[in-house]
Amino acid sequence: MAAIIALFVVSSLLAGCGGNEKEKAATLSVTVYADSQLNGNYDFPYQALTVTADTAESYGYEDQIAAESAVSALDVLVAMHKAQYGEAFTVDTCNDYFAVDGGWISKAFGNATTSWSVILNGEAAHSEVTSEYGGYESLMISQTEVTDNDVVEVVAYQDTENYTDNMIWFLQDDKKINQLSVTAGAETTLTVKGYPFCIYASYGTEEIGENYLTPLAGVQLALLEADGSLTDLAGAVSDSAGTVTFHVEEAGTFTVVAYMPADTGSLAFHSALTVTAAE
Predict the structure, then answer these.
(1) How does pLDDT run across 84-133, given as a tens digit for each residue?
(2) How does strand 29-38 pair with strand 151-156?
(3) Taking a C-beta distance cutoff of 8 angstroms, is the pair 11, 140 a contact?
(4) Where are the alpha helices (DSSP H) in 54-153?
(5) How far apart are CA 1 and CA 23, in angstroms?
């Protein structure tokens, strides 16, 4: 298990803050959805974020992706910190908020823990090279390319002994979704299933979906508010088959979050769904 954990518990940065003279490369940018989770709560709420390919370099970090070719997950992580702390996050102060030690993220959003990991679109970023531990070889955040509408999440495990935290997927017609169109006031039924992220995250979407997802009972759906808090949707709790029904009253675009309440005895990372409700 220790070897498996080493593959998934957080990615690497080999350069620290400051001292990087690498020339800014490009203005290539993408818009992604990003969040950070600690102790079962958002400390950087799920939100759209536009990120340029030179963001990491501008703060003294160096990824392994040419700035003219793609934005990296490392660029996204640094942009998240900039969005959170504004002018307080500088080349001189970034180690107050973010730190790496021997390739491990030891601090993010000012929280020092060695249990940080990165989730890309509900799984681990990986190559197509088969891993001796199963699945594929994971990519570090400095190696991971991101594109428009990707979901990039920086999370800390709650179970730091066995790393059993589940990743929750929203499913409609047995397909993973992170965006959904509905009619305001009408009931919508979805399925929520999960898998132990640390063990199976690099097996790829198809194999995870076919072999490792299981229904999750007791998952609560909630609306993400502007201040990052959650407001539970009444009655929107999954049953033993993972089936959950919900509705939103008004037209608009909302973020619906699936989370595992503490009293269920199970651990899971929050999962977000962008819901557009029409009249």
Answers:
(1) 999 999 999 998 999 766 557 888 999 998 899 999 999 999 999 999 99
(2) parallel
(3) yes
(4) 55-58, 73-85
(5) 41
Q: Which two tokens stand for residue 69?
A: 């070719």
Q: How far apart are the C-alpha atoms of 50 and 45, rounded to whole Å?
A: 15
Q: Which two tokens stand for residue 95?
A: 């180690």
Look at the block and give the residue holding tokens 């995250």: 201
254's tokens: 């909302």
Written as one letter, the residue type at 130 is T
Cβ atoms of 59 and 78 closer than 8 Å = yes
Helix (H) or strand (E) segment spanning residue 181: strand 179-183
Instruction: Give per-residue pLDDT as tens, 59-72.
Output: 988 888 998 999 99
Quote the CA–CA distance of 110 and 99 in Å, as a whole number: 9
Q: How many residues does the chain have?
A: 279
Q: What are phi and psi of 193, to 5 degrees?
A: -130, 165
The reported pTM is 0.89
Close Cβ partners of 201 (under 8 Å, ≥ 6 residues apart): 8, 119, 123, 124, 135, 138, 167, 195, 208
Q: Which token pair is 264?
A: 């269920």
Looking from the CA of 93 toward its CB, the CA atoms found within 13 Å total 10
| 71 vs 148: CA distance, rounded Å | 10
C-alpha 204/C-alpha 24 separation (Å) is 33
Comparing CA positions, the residue from 195, 223, 198 lying closest to residue 210 is 195
Residue 16, both tokens: 């620290």
Tokens 């199970």 belong to which residue?
266
